[in-house]
Amino acid sequence: MLTWRGNICVLLVLASMKPCQAQQALPDIRYVQTQQLKVGTKMAIPEIWFGVSRYSMMVRTESSDLKQLPHNAIDSLKVVYRFLKFYPRLKVEIGVHTDCRGSDKYSVRLSGRRAQTLADSLVSWGIRRERVKFKGYEKSEPIIPCDDISKMSDVKDQEAAHHVNRRIELKILGTDYLTPSYLYEGYNGHRAINEGDDLTFGDQFKVVFPSIYDRKTIEWEGLLNKMETCATCAYEIVCPESISEKGDWKLRQFRRLVYLEKMNTEKCRVSVSPDIEDSFLLVKVSNEPYTEPFLMFKGQRDSRSIFKDDTLKTGDEFILAIEYDYDKADIRPRSKIILTWLGEKLTALDTFKIIIESHTDCRGNDYYNNRLSHRRAQSVTEYLLDQFDFPDNSILPKGMGEEDPLSETSCEEINRLPSVEEREKIHQMNRRTVVKVKLAE
């Protein structure tokens, strides 16, 4: 009977069958000696289990149905990770072998995808992609010949032999690897971007990431921080259609991103090995300084701000930067300019309804504040209706008094602040005129 314990193949019966000499000859990656690390050396790694006909690793956890697995795939792969970190000049190949069962086409595809999964996982943990190649050997190099297995009469012996042939090996491809000094590779003849470099006008570079693990491995914060090193640069980014929603959201929030294009994946590929092409982002830095869009209205709380070229939409809440004389509701000349901007934005809409909310600070009694805020909201409404001839029911004035302050600091806490400047700053924040937009359905 043939049994399997870790990476040691033990032959108890069937003496006529070829022993597992090839597997026994492989040094264990956990105990390999430095003098054994030569080009062409193969090493055995702890067992990594995959689901039947699947290329995803089986991870054992206390809460999963896989907690009885003899080996946890992640723990086994971390052995390889630590080995590569300890020997940073090694380049290796992960080779996955299947057993004799299944068609050649099926075995090639399955072993290749499993090898890719392991390589991509190592890259996602920080091992550089060019250090890790992968290859699916399918059933072309069995330890126990398939003909010998077919002659076994005991099904358990056959299964044990198949288990021996299903294995993962680590092969050394090179011992002279030097980590590139650059952080991002230059594109189309442009310079590479090093760790300490600031971006400058005209830079073009690639941010490469594994195709399967794109949601996990792009260091979005690192890329955005690098983009911030050029305070006057604008950016164009071309990326694969498969980019994650999280990454897409982060990129779109970058205020100097003037163009984001999602291309067919074929146009955003970089060759890694004969078996796989990884995806990449192409980042282009503008040749001229960035011109900040004209901010018209600042968003209230989490609402967006409105820039010159923006179109108003339902749900917009923004603050009008208009001021009044003390205890007055008259529209100042400067405020008329701001209200003209608002009127022009509203004119571009087919139909709309907006609420004009006027807020006071917490000084004064409730009756006074409510009356004053209503008068001011009414003044804004009347000015817009008079200047732009909007329907009377399209604008609703609403005096809020001291309700719904922007600051979370209570009036009592404001009064205890030590300086007049600090107190006035919070009062000024709470005194505001807000526009809430609702477009007609």
Task: Give a structural overview.
There is one protein chain. The termini are far apart. The chain contains twelve helices and 19 strands. A hairpin with a 6-residue loop joins strand 14 and strand 15. It folds into three domains: 2-174, OmpA-like domain (60s Ribosomal Protein L30, Chain: A, 2-Layer Sandwich), CATH 3.30.1330; 182-285, no CATH class; 295-439, 2-Layer Sandwich (60s Ribosomal Protein L30, Chain: A), CATH 3.30.1330. It is of the alpha+beta class and 441 residues long. Helix content is 30%, strand content 24%. Mean pLDDT is 78; it is low at 1-24, 61-70, 211-217 and 270-277. Strands 7, 8, 9, 10, 11, 12 and 13 form a seven-stranded mixed β-sheet that branches.
Count of DSSP E strands? 19
Count of helix runs: 12
CATH class of the largest domain: Alpha Beta
**CATH homologous group name of the largest domain:** OmpA-like domain
Give the name of the CATH architecture of the largest domain. 2-Layer Sandwich
Give the low-pLDDT segments. 1-24, 61-70, 211-217, 270-277
Mean pLDDT: 78
Q: Helical amount among residues, as a percent range?
A: 25-40%
Give the distance, in angstroms, between the N- and C-terminal Cα atoms.
76 Å
Radius of gyration: 34 Å
SS-based class: alpha+beta
CATH topology of the largest domain: 60s Ribosomal Protein L30, Chain: A
**Multimerization status:** single chain
Tell me, briefly, the overall form. Answer: elongated
Number of domains: 3
**Strand percentage, roughly?**
15-25%
